[in-house]
Amino acid sequence: MAETDVQRDLELLAADLKRLEAEYNMFFAGRLPRPPWVTRGRVEAMIKRYDRGHIQTTSDRFRFETLQSRFHALAELWDRGLRAREEGRPGPFAQQAAGPRRKPRDTGDVVHTTAFKDPVHEMDKLHTLYDSLMNARRTHGEEVVPFHKFAALVKTQVTKLRDAGNAEVAFRVAVKNGKVAFTVRGVKEE
């Protein structure tokens, strides 16, 4: 099946839109001295031409409308970025500083402590412990562990330490030197 003029133009429009997006990304990254007005004008002209005209096939019309809505969404984003840059404030393309947003606590602060006899029957305490540990890990830029893995670890530790003669097993979440520490110890009956 031969490609029609409309399909060729839509291919060209898709390629130009991709090029325009790359040029704007380079501009906001500081690798281009000025916004890509020429490429943007070419894309806008083609969109206006087909928006005012009639496209015969439904698939071509759908493809055009998809490209058109993508262009308008990106153009709004680019315009907001330019406006923010002109006003001297961070916009949607501002470089984010790497690492955690809040300053980590280096004092060895205890975030949460709790003790279990049987974690299966103390799910509220288990969820509270999990939430406090994962919040501390998120705050300090560490990876979050799925709840089922965490629950299995707690259950294993409780079983091991109870078998060793401890009545309860205590868990502690603390922050030491910017790192989250999760410790466990057995509590003997008095």
Molecular structure report:
The chain is an alpha+beta fold and 190 residues long. It has two domains: 5-87; 109-187. The chain is 55% helix and 14% strand. The chain is built from five helices and three strands; from the N terminus they run αααβααββ. A hairpin with a 2-residue loop joins strand 2 (168-176) and strand 3. Helix 1 (5-28) runs antiparallel to helix 2. The mean pLDDT is 86.
Proportion in β-strands: 5-15%
Tally the structural domains.
2
Using DSSP, what is the number of strands?
A: 3
Q: Level of helix content?
A: 40-55%
Backbone structural class? alpha+beta
Distance between the termini: 87 Å
Order of helices and strands: HHHEHHEE
Count every helix, treating DSSP H or I runs of 4 or more residues as helices. Answer: 5
* Major sheet strand order: 1-2-3
Q: Quick one: overall form?
A: elongated
Low-confidence stretches: none
Largest sheet: 3 strands, antiparallel
Q: Radius of gyration in whole Å, from Cα? A: 29 Å
What is the arithmetic mean of pLDDT? 86
What's the helix and strand layout?
Elements: H1 5-28, H2 37-52, H3 58-87, E1 109-116, H4 123-139, H5 147-163, E2 168-176, E3 179-187
Antiparallel strand pairs: 1-2, 2-3
Summary, kept brief:
The chain is α+β, with helices and mostly antiparallel strands. It contains five helices and three strands, in the order αααβααββ.
Defining key terms:
5 helices; alpha+beta; 3-stranded antiparallel sheet; 3 strands; 190 residues
